[in-house]
Amino acid sequence: RKEVEQDPGPFNVPEGATVAFNCTYSNSASQSFFWYRQDCRKEPKLLMSVYSSGNEDGRFTAQLNRASQYISLLIRDSKLSDSATYLCVVNGGANAGKSTFGDGTTLTVKP
Amino acid sequence: DVKVTQSSRYLVKRTGEKVFLECVQDMDHENMFWYRQDPGLGLRLIYFSYDVKMKEKGDIPEGYSVSREKKERFSLILESASTNQTSMYLCATGGAGEKLFFGSGTQLSVL
Predict the structure, then answer these.
(1) Which residues make Cβ contacts (< 8 Å) with residue A66, sequence separation at least 6?
(2) pLDDT in tens, B38-64
(3) A43: nearest CB among B40, B42, B103
(4) For chain B, what is the radius of gyration of the CA atoms?
(5) What share of chain B in percent tops pLDDT 90?
(6) B31 CB burial (10 A radius; 0-12, 13-18, 19+)
(7) Which of B39, B83, B85 shows the shortest CA–CA distance to B65?
């Protein structure tokens, strides 16, 4: 079983749709959580950190459920520019400096 | 903004050649990482370093070595390149348990 698992998709949605991605992790000692965005042939870039209390940044909302060991990302009012691969990242456990990446979920927003 | 610079964007090498991939960061971070990214396999950690002259194996260190002689520079070495090392190589830096900043990647082709 992978340490971090994501539904690979692809998710194909129309503009304006709401889409949600989930990610599960296996190490209960994990300490910090992130969502990254990666455009085709580009490097991953931080989208947002994920906190137990949940956090929101404009159209994006991230949630963490430690008891069930999953994190989620909700995108409201999807834009064409949201088309990308979204990577779930988990840090910590035995080695606080090591990040473990999910394989990513691909989103395509269509007009 | 943190800047992470990888020496080459594209590289073509022959089987058996020794290959050096260089990465420089300008934010005085202790931690530096080398990942490779392949379609369907996501980002996989090769090696990381949490201090000068210190290194730790990641998930797939076989066939690779690293060097960290200065805090800002982390080099990945392929002692004898093989075709299965054709991949996108990504360098990253960040504080322990914190977000990562990536270089723009090196697409290495081994012929």
Answers:
(1) A28, A52
(2) 988 889 999 999 999 899 999 899 999
(3) B103
(4) 13
(5) 77
(6) buried
(7) B85
Question: Which position has the token pair 């395509």?
Answer: A108
- Burial of A108 from C-beta contacts in 10 A (0-12 / 13-18 / 19+): middle
**C-alpha to C-alpha distance for A69 and A65, rounded to whole angstroms:** 6
Q: Say yes or no to pLDDT of A26 above 80.
A: yes
Report cis status (omega within 30 of 0) of the bond before A10.
Answer: yes
Give percent of chain B above pLDDT 70: 98
The pLDDT score that the predictor gives to residue B86 is 97
Is the Cβ of A55 closer than 8 Å to some Cβ of chain B?
Answer: no
Q: Do B97 and A32 touch (CB under 8 A)?
A: yes
The residues, ordered by sequence, that sit 6+ positions from B38 with a Cβ below 8 Å of its Cβ are B44, B87, B88
Q: Does A34 touch chain B (CB under 8 A)?
A: yes
Residue A45 pLDDT > 90, yes or no?
A: yes
